[in-house]
Structures
1.
Amino acid sequence: MEQRTQHAERIAFLGLGHMGTPMARRLLAAGHPLTVWNRTATKAERLVAEGARLAASPADAVRDADVVITMLAGPDAVRSVADAILPALREGAYWVEMSTVGPDVVRELGERAAGRVTLVDAPVAGSTDKAAAGELGILAGGDADGVAHVLARLGTVTRTGPAGSGAALKLVVNTAVLGGVALVAEALALADALGLDGDAARTALARGPLGGAVARAFAQDVHFGADLAAKDAALAVRAADLPVMEAVAAHFTAAAADPETVHEDISHAVSHIRGRAARAARTA
Ligand SMILES: NC(=O)c1ccc[n+]([C@@H]2O[C@H](COP(=O)([O-])OP(=O)(O)OC[C@H]3O[C@@H](n4cnc5c(N)ncnc54)[C@H](OP(=O)(O)O)[C@@H]3O)[C@@H](O)[C@H]2O)c1
């Protein structure tokens, strides 16, 4: 593998959604020559104005890159982009897969990339605010030595073990987050049903063991879509027998099926869950 000058790697960043845009911006600000690609090209305009090069295709984006980062919606998006970039990746490059896709997809990508590029799974904990501040919790599986300093621009790196372990731990972490948020929503639905003041119930819950989940359920200025939450819950229940999480997945799937909440932050899914319970009580 050829020597790289630290901090000057050519980076290709694919996926400029709510998370990808602030992450890519941090890498650009740190001085990395940055090529970006996004399915909807208009979302790249601000980064291009700040100095990034816009690639015409995923293959064009990765051709000369030392480090390729993918931050895409989920397994389907990552597989589709993988089809496009695998033939074009430079031998010896790193591919850091940061989306939430679960360990099976990482294993599949690892087999396809084997021998030519080093695949690192590095999904993240923390939302858009942490992405902008470079304070994400990065769960890095596989041989991440060569990219640890790049990832450090985005947050705190925890090495989780072999390839796929970062993606696996991310599902564990999100199961607790989504389960906690859904439980807070149901506790508040119960408070509504019992005629309690919602703010008083929220304050009481915030003082208990689910205090962090209450904070996330009412978080402002962050964006984690209900569609992505439904995807993550589904990934978890496919990996193990999790009856509570099945119910949680059903809540987020319902929020993702509603055009008013599908792309909204999961705090709106909390209102969705409470609203559903209230409607069910009225029709009972
Ligand atoms: N948001 C959070 O708080 C958060 C926190 C931790 C982890 N994550 C994970 O990080 C990843 C990105 O999240 P996000 O909030 O940035 O999502 P997002 O805003 O919905 O962006 C999704 C990105 O994936 C692209 N995409 C979707 N389907 C595609 C396809 N078939 N082919 C190519 N590109 C496709 C989108 O392109 P277009 O722009 O063309 O639609 C967009 O760039 C997800 O895996 C999510 O679960 C999110």
2.
Amino acid sequence: MKSREALGGYLADRGWMRRVLDQTYANMNDLAVSGYPFPIDDEGQSYRRSLQGPEYMKLMRKRVKKAGVRILDHSPALELLVDAHGVGGASGIRSATGETWTVKAGAVILASGGCAFLSKALGCNVLTGDGYLLAAEAGASLSGMEFSNAYAISPVFSTVTKTAFYTWATFYYEDGTVIEGAGSQKGRSVIARTLQTQPVYARLDRTTEEMRRWMRAAQPNFFLSFDRQGIDPFTQLFPVTMRLEGTVRGTGGIHLIDESCATGVPGLYAAGDAATRQFICGGFTGGGSHNAAWAMSTGYWAGEAAAAYAVSLGSRRNERELTGAGVEASVSALVSTGEIQERIAAVKREVEPFDINLFRTETTLAQSLGRLHSLWRNVRNAAAMNAADAVKLREVQAMTATARWMYSSALARRETRGMHKRLDYPGTDASQHYRLLTGGLDEVWVKPESGVLSSVEVRQS
Ligand SMILES: Cc1cc2nc3c(=O)[nH]c(=O)nc-3n(C[C@H](O)[C@H](O)[C@H](O)COP(=O)(O)OP(=O)(O)OC[C@H]3O[C@@H](n4cnc5c(N)ncnc54)[C@H](O)[C@@H]3O)c2cc1C
């Protein structure tokens, strides 16, 4: 716990950290009992220290099905259903057929991941901040949205952003000379600065023969694109870039008001990357086990609390008059597929450039925010012409809203803390040692969690 506190700018909470460690330990043992294929170590014991995503999801899916749950694959949720008592369901579209679906439920858990702004980073192109927008429309807050500028190193020719192995890389200019100060863990800013003017190359040349064998066995997919290109990353230089992972390897998300993962809106809970990870990571995560541990633990607690809430509704559950919480589409604002693509490009122009999102200043953030506010006014009531476009349009709305919460929070945090780096405030300011909440749709608000330091409050629209 101590090793991560400084990295996260001392915004994590040891109580939450302890709970997550304990719950993850219990869940790992539970998985073993349920048949997760953990490897056997040299002493013949089940080695319960690592999870493979696909295996984990396969087992969880089996358990969910066994419990009688119907799974709607490829069926994005577009809207929450609400009444005066809170959230009571959701509706969306089945991508394959374009049909709409509606689910009425005693409670809803948002577990839709973070937002990586369609940057094509590995595993992230389905993460467009939809859950943030759904939550905000229902009246929930977000927090830690300034911690949203994660960029991962990847080869130029691939989307694989597994960055752990770059710990053993050296970074080079095109002429083969070493870029001083460039590095994966410390020195990513040097790589970004260099990329602004010229290509950057890497080579995993700080590895031993034994490490190389181990690395291939541990992360086969890291090497796939190299093998296809006929490049040996241990002995040959290869061009690298940095792909935006936004809040996925940032820490911002839907704010939780208590340990049950409640959002403050009755009947609405959040889990995993959709929820703020500040409680265990503060303002920095990078990669690593705490993220999956958070997903596993918050999923467990949110499930437990949502079930209890649904039961507490009793027969009232069947008497609800639910309506959609989303912003209303106006037929006079019909947009074509091409216009939606233009708007996606417009959001990306604001969040991808290092000069706006990584190297932050008052001027660049405020200018970008101005453009994002006008983009929001442009997309908020837009209507799509078909089901596929409706999903894409919703993604644009969510990404635009997310970017506005990000930059409004980044403007309010006039210091450097965690992954949030302000060039105009390069130091950490002890008087800003608080979490920032944000929210709002047409008018975005930001305020410290405690509510006492009102000097940083800003309102933007
Ligand atoms: C390259 C990479 C490597 C990582 N390595 C590690 C690691 O080694 N260890 C670790 O602990 N963590 C790691 N992480 C982080 C980890 O993957 C996440 O913390 C974890 O996947 C979060 O789980 P989740 O279920 O909350 O969200 P996700 O896994 O992101 O799942 C969210 C799901 O919601 C779906 N969705 C989105 N919008 C909607 C909508 N509107 N309607 C319906 N569904 C929707 C998405 O399609 C997706 O399936 C890594 C992340 C990346 C990007």
